[in-house]
Amino acid sequence: MSKKVYLDYAATTYTRPEVLEEMLPYFTEQFGNPSSLYTFSEDTKKAILKARERIAKAINADKDEIYFTAGGSEADNWAIKGIVSALRNKGNHIITTAIEHHAVINTCKYLERNGCEVTYLPVDAEGFINIEDLKNAITDKTILVSIMFANNEVGTLQPIKEIGTFLREKKILFHTDAVQAVGHVPVDVKDMNIDLLSLAGHKFYGPKGVGALYIRKGIRIDNLIHGGGQERNKRASTENISGIVGLGKAIELATAELAEESKRVYDLREKLIDGILERIPYTKLNGPRGNKRLPGNTDFSFIGIEGETLLLDLDDEGIYGSTGSACASGSLDPSHVLLALGLNHETAHGSLRLTLGAKTTEDEIDYVLEVLPRIIKRRREMSPLWEQFLKEKGEN
Ligand SMILES: *Cc1c(COP(=O)(O)O)cnc(C)c1O
């Protein structure tokens, strides 16, 4: 029995066959440069337009508000650097949160070294910002607020509509990194008063290396990628046609299936959470429960356990999870997200993120529930941290 149980859908997904099928002709037959004038390129122009329309429809935007990028990180960089550059005469203050993806955090850190002031809002034990903190952080120099829609480690869904409505009244621009949200929970830029939104194909069964930035009509933003006149003079480089086509197809499928699929995944997630909390003592679920958590996200801390060791043990049993964000793995620093949630370094080190997706089955969850308690028990028996914990508890 060699099982392969992939539970890292938040890191990336496979590309759906229906998506790949629609992409393939744009590598081989319909390869014309959309900027060229001959009729040979008409197909590619049409394909890009169709993808733009599909993305716009999925988030309730207008097609002219969608700009293609080379993924989520570029969309985040562009939104933040582009606004800071365009509004530098108005102010230099950005507000974000302590739990953003590195694409946002490190962009903000870079800007801090270059004359910007950044406020990193704290979060509560479940990862939610407090809207009062946001209100108090605003100064007359605040030009942009960037708050992620859904957290990639612990799944927390922020009160985006409440934040957006407040900021629209204040006339302060609102960007949200919705890379984990799009295709998984309903996203409506009009209803939620969002000005800029980042998304990426490979988080909802599209290809990697392609994403989009939604920029609300009328917003002044400087370019990030300078060069030719593609994307209505806002983002240079010959269009990644096949990627763009795949992005459009994937978002259309994900949105059409969202209600049913998110319910299915949610139920499996609940089974996994309940099962782990029941079977493994001294375990903490990081992030909220219920529908303010991404349907497919689980994240646990096991006292006395070292996260990397746990991942290797799980790998031996054919279970593929992560210790948090893919970018942080390989480094020994505990996750900035878990620290912001108030975990101490030791507990943050013993964390495991299992994220569910389209191919996750009840059998796979049963398998994890059989294997994981056994691994934790064995590792704890060897762990000095665990021994110390028991002593402190007075159970030894
Ligand atoms: C994956 C991810 C990104 C980065 O997207 P890429 O396409 O890998 O550049 C940004 N933000 C969040 C929340 C993500 O989960």
Q: Poorly predicted ranges (pLDDT <50, ≥5 residues)?
A: 325-329
**Roughly what percent helix?**
40-55%
- In spatial order, strands of the major sheet run 2-8-7-6-5-3-4
Look at the structure and give the CATH class of the largest domain. Alpha Beta
Total domain units: 2
CATH topology tier name of the largest domain:
Aspartate Aminotransferase, domain 2
CATH architecture of the largest domain: 3-Layer(aba) Sandwich
CATH homolog superfamily of the largest domain = Type I PLP-dependent aspartate aminotransferase-like (Major domain)
Description:
- With 396 residues, the chain is α/β, with parallel strands linked by helices.
- It folds into 2 domains: 5-13 and 258-393, Aspartate Aminotransferase, domain 1; 17-256, Type I PLP-dependent aspartate aminotransferase-like (Major domain) (Aspartate Aminotransferase, domain 2).
- Helix content is 42%, strand content 13%.
- It has helices at 17-23, 25-28, 42-59, 72-86, 102-112, 131-137, 160-170, 230-233, 241-279, 307-316, 336-340, 345-349, 362-381, 384-393; strands at residues 5-6, 66-69, 93-97, 117-121, 142-146, 173-177, 196-200, 211-215, 283-285, 297-302, 319-320, 351-355.
- The strands form 3 sheets. It has a 7-stranded mixed sheet with strand order 2-8-7-6-5-3-4, sandwiched between helices. It has a 3-stranded antiparallel sheet with strand order 9-10-12. It has a two-stranded parallel ribbon with strand order 1-11.
- α1 (17-23) runs antiparallel to α9, α3 runs parallel beside α9 (241-279) and α4 (72-86) runs parallel beside α5 (102-112).
- 48% of the residues are buried.
